[in-house]
């Protein structure tokens, strides 16, 4: 019997996913709920289990390919005799595309290049597309665009006609988020500089001259675009980052998918939010003493260690109820005050980090918070997180202290407007009741978006979090 393995729906907003790595190959035995492959979405990486027990018969979605939710990505057979060939031999992954001669391939490549060049030239002669003409449709001319792609296109003012021209690398030539961002980042779009057109014509002449040196090409007159187009092009074009070259002894390491996503997200955050940072010290004696008293019994009962993170999350959530402008986001000229307090906790991975979210953190007690923190951290490190686990955050906490750092200046996790950095707990000499004593002290850093949070409010919020922690009473909780 054949079992179709489909790309699962990992969350309400997830329409597609990318195959990262097949952990099983055609002919391998698979067990129901056993991990078969790793996939990636815009939100999280996940391991996908087998829908049944049997043998992997055919891999349809190749590594690096992005496919829509519900698409068949592999086939499984329940009996070894059902494998291709009927003799139990492992089938091969075949390329379904027909082979073509070198001459045909060369001719097709040249034709495709010329067509692209022609489209670029014609695009210059058209009037510029304004933001008001941005994409509003899901399907155009039989082409499907995911909600994520359409959303980015709207924000960047990319028209449906431009989308139709982008060469997609997804399943069936579909345009993916990466395709669209590459198109935007390359400076392509409605505004095309005249010098780019001249370069296009020069390349076109070279391409046409390759197969037949005797071919003649008529000169193509290119009308200079209106001044307003040039102005738009200059305004939208950002200075290119300085290029660096590797020396002979240097190692060049390409960014993986997660590192690219982190890089893009961090750069966007710095460009979006004017960051302001304030630091405060917290006397952690009450919490440190309480944890020391209960940690062994807690570990025996719960089977995981009690860390300081649950205490911090509780303090953050309590204080956010009093300072709602730090639990918000910005939408153009509007401020959106979030009714739910969903605290994201940064979890360091082997290569990168991820921020799972504790939903409705203000409704949880300390024990419930500790259990959820442990569950999410474990799922993150074992690639068991689902996209819904990392969505909806309204405030983030990053604990740099676990690596020995005293303090840091974390970058806001967009579209949030604030983030709390937690330093290591160190013993320090402090003054208590006019006497010098030794206390465990922790530094907290609040980073906030100065567009909507003033320095006074940021300082008051941080002071409130600090006081909740320093005044901890085991009989009352936090």
Detail the topology: elements first, then pairings:
Blueprint (H helix, E strand, L loop, with lengths): L1 E5 L9 E7 L6 E2 L4 E6 L4 E5 L4 E6 L6 E3 L3 E6 L24 H24 L13 E2 L2 E2 L2 H10 L3 H6 L11 H9 L8 H16 L17 H10 L20 H16 L2 E9 L1 H18 L6 H14 L5 E4 L2 E4 L5 E3 L1 E3 L2 E3 L2 E2 L7 H16 L13 E5 L18 E15 L2 E15 L5 H16 L8
Parallel strand pairs: 14-18, 18-19
Antiparallel strand pairs: 1-8, 2-4, 2-7, 3-6, 4-5, 6-8, 9-10, 11-20, 12-13, 14-17, 15-16, 19-20
Helix pairs in contact: 1-5, 2-4, 9-10, 9-11
Task: Explain what the structure shows.
It is a single chain. With 478 residues, the chain is an alpha+beta fold. The chain has 3 domains: 2-82, RNA polymerase II/Efflux pump adaptor protein, barrel-sandwich hybrid domain (OB fold (Dihydrolipoamide Acetyltransferase, E2P)), CATH 2.40.50; 102-236, no CATH class; 260-470, Chloramphenicol acetyltransferase-like domain (Chloramphenicol Acetyltransferase, 2-Layer Sandwich). Helix content is 32%, strand content 22%. It has 11 helices and 20 strands. The strands form 6 sheets. A 6-stranded mixed beta sheet has the order 11-20-19-18-14-17. Strands 1-8-6-3 form a 4-stranded antiparallel beta sheet, with no helix packed on it. The longest helix is centred in the first third of the chain and has 24 residues, at 102-125. Residues 94-104, 120-139, 189-200 and 211-230 have low confidence and may be disordered.
